[in-house]
């Protein structure tokens, strides 16, 4: 919506207009003048006035008020999409520009979903920092299900994870960090503990523990789907909200879990064994999703990371 963006820049000062956009965004998302007014601590009349002024400036109707709740028009949907991007970029500029002026440095913000992600990145980041000391890194752990939305909302420059939500990652770039398969993690004392390889029949006759759907998001459904491709429906006896809790449950409840083939919890060596699953469908792809063109340090980081991975 080039017309909308240019109007926002042209009339009345970009700062004032951008700072009014959250009200429009909230109205779009709640479909309620009352909820929008309460959320922004303004009157319903102020919300109405804002929408009317936007419609007057753009020369289009943004909402169909003949329905309850109100519905966005095609123009309203487009403005919502562009407003989210403009507002996100504005917030980033407010945070980044003063820091760049003071420090003369760039910062790359990464969201990761497990400690395995950082284990893969750490050797490269040390190498990258040696070559580019002015670039700082900020990392934040988030649940699998939240990684896509955090990236879409501009809370990070890149997110590392698997099974990203497609509705939040359209138009984003992807770098594959690792491709592998899930293996069974079997506790000491379990009947399968001494096996070198597990058949699918052996694996699925025993109860399992997994990270919860609230943590895994799409990945949880993916694990179920992989099992069904093997011809089974897994008996998930218990779920956990983090890896440490999942490992605790494995050991105390004598349940089988799953881990990537590039990870083993060394603190439990001797108490747990990672065992391959014969002819299973539990493959995964660890990816870095990132926003192109918003942070000048990101393309350099991605290019050098790509070259680093090719040489591993």
Spell out the key features of this protein.
Arc Repressor Mutant, subunit A, D-Maltodextrin-Binding Protein, domain 2, LysR family transcriptional regulator, 2 domains, alpha/beta, 312 residues, two-stranded antiparallel sheet, 20% strand, globular, 11 strands
Please explain how this structure is put together:
Residues 16-73 form the HTH lysR-type domain. Belongs to the LysR transcriptional regulatory family. This is LysR family transcriptional regulator. GO terms for molecular function: DNA binding; DNA-binding transcription factor activity. The protein is α/β, with parallel strands linked by helices and 312 residues long. The chain has 2 domains: 2-98, Winged helix-like DNA-binding domain superfamily/Winged helix DNA-binding domain (Arc Repressor Mutant, subunit A); 106-312, D-Maltodextrin-Binding Protein, domain 2 (3-Layer(aba) Sandwich), CATH 3.40.190.290. The protein is 49% helix and 20% strand. It has 14 helices and 11 strands. Helix 7 (115-131) links the parallel strand 3 (106-112) and strand 4 (135-141). Helix 3 packs across helix 6 (74-103) and helix 4 packs across helix 5 (44-58). The two termini are 43 Å apart.
């Amino acid at each position: 919506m080039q017309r909308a963006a240019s109007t926002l820049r042209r009339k009345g000062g970009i700062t004032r207009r951008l700072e009014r956009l959250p009200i429009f965004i909230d109205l779009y998302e709640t479909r309620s003048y009352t909820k929008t007014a309460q959320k922004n601590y303004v009157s319903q009349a102020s919300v109405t006035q804002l929408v009317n002024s936007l419609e007057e400036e753009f020369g289009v109707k943004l909402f169909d008020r003949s329905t309850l709740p109100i519905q966005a028009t095609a123009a309203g949907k487009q403005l919502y999409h562009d407003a989210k991007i403009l507002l996100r970029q504005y917030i980033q500029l407010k945070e980044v520009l003063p820091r760049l002026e003071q420090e003369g440095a760039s910062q790359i913000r990464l969201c990761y979903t497990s400690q395995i992600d950082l284990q893969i990145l750490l050797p490269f980041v040390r190498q990258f920092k040696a070559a580019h000391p002015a670039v700082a890194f900020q990392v934040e752990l988030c649940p699998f299900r939240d990684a896509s939305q955090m990236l879409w909302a501009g809370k990070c420059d890149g997110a590392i994870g698997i099974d990203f939500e497609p509705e939040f990652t359209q138009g984003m770039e992807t770098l594959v960090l690792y491709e592998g398969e899930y293996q069974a993690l079997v506790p000491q004392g379990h009947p399968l503990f001494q096996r070198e390889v597990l058949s699918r029949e052996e694996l699925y006759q025993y109860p399992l523990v997994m990270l919860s759907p609230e943590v895994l998001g799409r990945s949880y459904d993916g694990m179920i789907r992989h099992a069904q491709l093997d011809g089974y429906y897994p008996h998930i006896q218990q779920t956990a909200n983090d890896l440490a809790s999942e490992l605790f449950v494995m050991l105390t409840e004598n349940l089988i879990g799953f881990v990537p083939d590039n990870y083993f919890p060394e603190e439990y060596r001797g108490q747990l064994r990672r065992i391959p699953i014969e002819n299973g469908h539990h493959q995964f792809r660890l990816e870095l999703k990132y926003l192109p063109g918003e942070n000048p340090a990101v393309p350099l980081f991605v290019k050098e990371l790509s070259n680093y991975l090719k040489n591993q």
